[in-house]
């Protein structure tokens, strides 16, 4: 079981290259981290072009297509989580926390934005930590004779946590105009705690953000054009879609994780708001 982690990730390092072939693992890639240690050039991502420089970090999700176009010799490390990595999340034991890792990157998967994928960091120390961990896990992984699973597993966990912590996502279709850091804090809190419904009640959110119970809903609607409870439910249902698309979790497991009474309750709500049953949604994915 433990060695499964090495069978479901691919780590590649290219040193001082000026030409990068299209990765043979792209068709089975689920999530990818690309760290450009040094070099200058551009990356064409989903038809759009963005420049890169030393210490640039990009993240890619399943449908992303990218091509590195180097202008100077470029050193790149790529960590690719294959599609098989996050399957059967509920069957993994506590020493192999795939479900927890999936939650860490779920906000990226939930995003319908087509923004470019370059990572921005809240602090320089977070960037430095991530770079150090990427280098560590790559060194261990590429040492095929004596790689240390403990180091690889725990480094990957921290890497995903750092990425999740620094994702700054605003759904332009939902958020009318964000001028206040307070509203973004509330949105981030909702996203981070979508699996903890007890802290997402109006009362709990009001206490968390030092507002009156009857004011926080009004405040949220004013800044987003969406009622607070509806926003939370919409984000839950987006998480349901993400689980159905990218994992083998059962309907009952998803319902339990997201605070629905049972799979029947989840199916009823999903069909009401999405216009399709859970089974039909999954059938359309095939």
Automatic annotation (TrEMBL):
Keywords: DNA-binding, Transcription, Transcription regulation. It comes from the Bacteria. Pfam families: AraC_binding (PF02311), HTH_18 (PF12833). Residues 57-206 form the BAH domain. This is Helix-turn-helix transcriptional regulator. PANTHER family: ARAC-FAMILY TRANSCRIPTIONAL REGULATOR (PTHR43280), HTH-TYPE TRANSCRIPTIONAL REGULATOR EXSA (PTHR43280:SF2). Gene3D superfamilies: Homeodomain-like (1.10.10.60). InterPro entries: AraC-bd, BAH_dom, Homeodomain-like_sf, HTH-like, HTH_AraC.
């Amino acid at each position: 079981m433990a060695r499964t982690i090495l069978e479901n990730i691919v780590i590649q390092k290219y040193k001082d290259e000026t030409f990068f072939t299209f990765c043979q693992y792209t068709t089975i890639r689920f999530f990818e981290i690309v760290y450009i240690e040094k070099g200058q050039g551009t990356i064409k991502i989903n038809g759009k072009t963005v420049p890169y420089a030393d210490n640039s970090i990009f993240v890619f999700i399943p449908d992303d297509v990218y091509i590195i176009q180097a202008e100077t010799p470029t050193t790149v490390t790529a960590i690719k989580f294959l599609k098989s990595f996050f399957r059967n999340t509920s069957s993994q034991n506590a020493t192999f926390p795939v479900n927890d890792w999936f939650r860490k990157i779920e906000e990226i998967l939930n995003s319908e934005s087509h923004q470019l994928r370059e990572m921005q960091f809240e602090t320089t120390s977070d960037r430095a930590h991530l770079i150090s961990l990427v280098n560590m896990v790559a060194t261990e992984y590429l040492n095929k004779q004596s790689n240390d699973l403990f180091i690889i597993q725990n480094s990957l966990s921290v890497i995903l946590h750092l990425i999740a912590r620094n994702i700054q996502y605003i759904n332009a279709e939902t958020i009318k105009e964000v001028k206040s850091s307070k509203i973004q804090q509330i949105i981030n809190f909702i996203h981070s705690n979508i699996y903890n419904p007890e802290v997402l009640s109006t009362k709990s959110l009001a206490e968390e953000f030092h507002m009156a119970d009857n004011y926080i809903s009004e405040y949220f609607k004013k800044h987003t054009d969406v009622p607070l409870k509806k926003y939370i439910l919409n984000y839950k249902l987006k998480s349901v879609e993400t689980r159905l698309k990218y994992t083998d979790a059962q309907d009952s497991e998803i319902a339990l994780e997201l605070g629905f009474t049972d799979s029947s309750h989840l199916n009823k709500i999903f069909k009401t708001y999405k216009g399709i049953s859970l089974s039909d949604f999954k059938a359309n994915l095939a």
